Amino acid sequence: MTQENMIRFIEQHKNQLPISKLTQLFGISRSTFYRNRKMKRSSLTPVEERIHQLVQENHYLFGYRKIHALLNRELTIGINKVARIMKRRGWNCIAKIKKHRHTGLQHKAFDNLIQKDWSTKQPLQKLTTDITYLPFGSSMLYLSTIMDMFNNEIVAYEISDHPDTKLVMDTFNQLGELPEQTILHSDQGTTYTAKKFCDLVKQKNVIQSMSRKGTPSDNAPIESFHSSLKSETFYTLKEPISSNTRVIDIVEKYIYFWNNNRILAKLGYLSPNEYRSAR
After folding, report:
1. Tens-place pLDDT, residues 215-229
2. Are 112 and 209 in contact (CB under 8 A)?
3. Burial class (CB in 10 A: 0-12, 13-18, 19+), 86
4. What's this model's pTM, rounded to 2 decimal places?
5. In the 3-class helix/strand/coil scheme, how is the chain assigned residue by residue?
6. How many other CB atoms are there within 10 angstroms of residue 254's CB atom?
């Protein structure tokens, strides 16, 4: 069923069931329902129809620059025109809620081999990893991810109810054979300095690199990804999530979206997988 049909069905049955129940049934937010209910699609030009489709496909997460980049693959149109249409129609991207990270105790560290130079011409040469908390379900969950800086792809991830060494080892073990001199960058958390984890990394001939003490900016790419994941999903929800299963489902769908559809300016407005396929 298309989203348009979902909106029409909810509109037709809103007197029988609460709108919150109907939107939950179809897996869409109430804000999406209200936004689309007000839309008179017959009044849209063909260009506006396509812009609206792109905005919906990307969950209202892209601003006019990225929508213009996608549209420009199909037709020639000025970026200012796209901006005006999106503003007039109320299709601007959802604003991100900024979150401030509080650093914990730091432990012994390996040298910082990256020094904020994330450039690489080959896949799996420079990897970055981190753990972020997910306080959105029935209990606290923790997400461990590994990003390939060649194309900002999430190449491994694991969710657990404990931010321990097992979590980062399970994440790292998802990686297959790695090139020689692969660098894995992390913060100085105890999970990454634990002997078991260090031994595992060494067995794969991977070189560890670590951020300076209390300097999250040294690991900015993965920090930015975790921030985007939360601000573009959980922080936009109007109603609380009642189960951890729902939290995990949201994370998994977002990572798939990030790898396959989330175009990035640094990749020439391609998604991570599109960029890798083009090389």
Report:
1. 878 889 999 999 999
2. yes
3. buried
4. 0.67
5. CCHHHHHHHHHHHCCCCCHHHHHHHHCCCHHHHHHHHCCCHHHCCHHHHHHHHHHHHCCCCCCHHHHHHHHCCCCCCCHHHHHHHHHHHCCCCCCCCCCCCCCCCCCCCCCCCCCCCCCCCCCCCEEEEEEEEECCCCCCEEEEEEEECCCCEEEEEEEECCCCHHHHHHHHCCCCCCCCCCEEEECCCHHHHCHHHHHHHHHCCCEEEECCCCCHHHHHHHHHHHHHHHHCCHHHCCCCCCCHHHHHHHHHHHHHHHHHCCCEHHHCCECHHHHHHHC
6. 21
Query: Cβ distance 33 to 56 under 8 Å?
Result: no
**Structure token digits, residue 86:** 């999106």
Residue type, 164: D
CB 249: neighbour CB atoms within 10 A?
Answer: 13
Q: Which residues pair with 131 in a beta bridge?
A: 144
User: Beta strands 183-186 and 126-134: pairing type?
Assistant: parallel
Residue with tokens 């640094």: 266
Sign of the torsion formed by the C-alpha atoms of 41, 26, 21 and 15: positive
Listed ranges 17-26, 72-81, 92-101; the one with the highest mean pLDDT: 72-81
Q: Dig out the tokens for 166 from the structure.
A: 């097992």
Sign of the dihedral through C-alpha 71, 72, 76, 82: positive
What are the chain's domains?
3-89 (no CATH), 126-278 (3.30.420.10)
Q: Per-residue pLDDT tens for 164-188? A: 999 999 999 999 999 989 999 999 8
**Measured distance CA(67)–CA(63) in Å, rounded:** 6
β-pairing verdict for 141-148 and 153-160: antiparallel
